[in-house]
Amino acid sequence: MNTIENLTEYLKNSVSPFHMVGHSIDLLDQAGFIPLSSKESWTLEKGKGYYCRTFSGELFAFKIGRDADLSKGVHIGGAHTDWPCLRVKPNGTFNKKGYLQINAEIYGGPILSTFFDRPLSIAGRLALKSKDLLNPDVVYVDLKKPVLTIPNLAIHMSRSEENAGGLDKQTHLMPLCAMVNETLNQDDYLLRYIAGSTGVKYEDILDFELYIYNPEEPQLVGLNGEFLSSPRLDNATSACALIYGLMDSSPSDRISLAALFDNEEIGSRTKQGADSQMLSIILEKIWASLGRDRISFLSDIQGSMILSVDVGHGFHPNYPASYDITTYPKLGSGFVIKMDSNQKYTWDCEAVGGLMNLCQTFGIPYQRCVKRTGQAGGGTIGSPLSAQVPVKTVDIGVPLLAMHSARELMGTADQISLTDAVTRFFTA
């Protein structure tokens, strides 16, 4: 398959952070990478690839060059596995005048209006009873079909004064899932339905993390198919580029590592987020398994570099006043190097210059991007990553339109340039 076909398949399979990691592992297994446990000591060999799933939504995969010189450090690419959406609350179903509804809460900062009037599905994981009391069994869930929808209020009614307050996030975002009748058991109906669909006993379910997602498939758009419209482009585009870039890379004298973190959309400050010590722990375990002590590790790591890979804001021709007057990325013109003097995007001229040199050497299209002065633009994992592992870091990604929508838009050429840049970075 080509780069866009790979991305399309990746998007279809990435219906929750847990499923994105699971699909990445399937790809790594096919490529001959060796699984590791974070709970065990490692015996690693040069010339081989490995991966470690530390938490359900977090993954580290790396290749050790045949002639790896640890004093040169490691080339790291990081991305996140989550996206803004709705999630099911505990006690997730309730009856309102014969309509069975889901009690949902907002995760991150989605464009809420885009989740209305769409077919929606549910994916995530269940914690099940086990003999190991504090370590329940975990089962991953994907209903795959549209089971929910959030209808809009008709325009004739929404003009009324009683609706002048706008969207109420508690009452207006409750998806419909069924109509109540005499044969319908309303008590935990959603979990009973999921248990039956998943092949587990309802009585064994202890807890859950369930995401409400858009099951519509990616689709090429445009007279020449130059755009890709899809849910979850933020940030499956980046994770896909890192996994395929690592698999296709050929590092000879260094280590290359792809890191996928959860919870970027809510600040990254969790055990499975980029603002934790897990990356440092993984790196130190690699160094120790190859015979280097901690002092050597702390010295060697200074030769490293990080690419924080996350989507950027593409220029929207209908809203030109929202962008910088000279430096704005267009869809289809290459991936973006994101720069911000306040370090919401992480960069410095030495790190950016090195990446530009690599791209120019191999003819890889890229653009630079800065925000309009005074305009908020969001953050990435770059700042917490570079604080936890203080080495040169650059924020890059594909430019998007409709970022944080239930369905976003990108240029297909930009995914190709991003994947090429990541592959060359991992090989350099």
What does this structure look like?
It is a single chain. It is built from 10 helices and 20 strands. With 428 residues, it is of the alpha/beta class. It has 2 domains: 3-83 and 232-427, Zn peptidases (Aminopeptidase); 85-213, Aminopeptidase i, Domain 2. A 9-stranded mixed beta sheet has the order 1-2-3-13-4-14-18-16-17, with helices on both faces. Strands 8-7-10-5-6-9 form a 6-stranded antiparallel beta sheet, with helices on both faces. The chain starts with a helix and ends with a helix. The relative contact order is 0.18. The mean pLDDT is 94. Its EC number is 3.4.11.-. Its cofactor is Zn(2+). Belongs to the peptidase M18 family. InterPro entries: Peptidase_M18, Peptidase_M18_dom2. GO terms for molecular function: aminopeptidase activity; metallopeptidase activity; zinc ion binding.
